[in-house]
Predict the structure.
Amino acid sequence: MARKTKEDAQATRTALLDSAEHLFEARGVGRTSLADIAAHAGATRGAIYWHFKDKADLFNAMMERVALPMSQSLLCADLESAADPGQTLRAAILHAFACIEGDPQIIRVLQIATLRLELTEELGAIQQHHRLMQTRALEKISEGLHRAYQVRQLEPAQNVATTALGLQALFEGLLQQWLTSPGRFALQATVATALDVYLKGLGLTPLPGPCDQGLRAPAHPPRTTGQSARALRR
């Protein structure tokens, strides 16, 4: 019986997240209440507060459910032991964009976060979470550039923290442009070209010979969209 109760609770949580995705996309985050989400999922208001502290907590859970590939790919990149850390960093970023471009759910959630989110005081925790993820990604990019200069025994011409921020702004800007109209350009191919131009400008062209890219496939949790579990409710 205890196992059944746990399965019911997980099914309810999944249904609530599915409904949040649907309503956030249709109405925007600010114009969707927790009561709206509970009603759409066929759950009680008590159920939604059992699983989520508030709307910001639910939104962050929705983002985490798709295992945001940008942070996952970067955090899985082994920059310390890679033969060419610059190319390892490049491979990690491109792996992330391949995941984004090929997954409709990731695209939908990123579009909600980019185009359908109106930040208010109520949703301040969303902005805090986003800044945390950006900071972690930036630290990994800085590490990759620093290691790339080390293995080449070169002194960077510019401050590494500044060039890392520029690189992050480059691919995040391309992503934001693409999300406004997916299909407008080939995302991964465009990012690859932009990365190559940027890294070449930093003097970080690929080292000769075979290189261990040092990239482990990110561990994405299994998707639970709730289609088979909608009959189960808390």
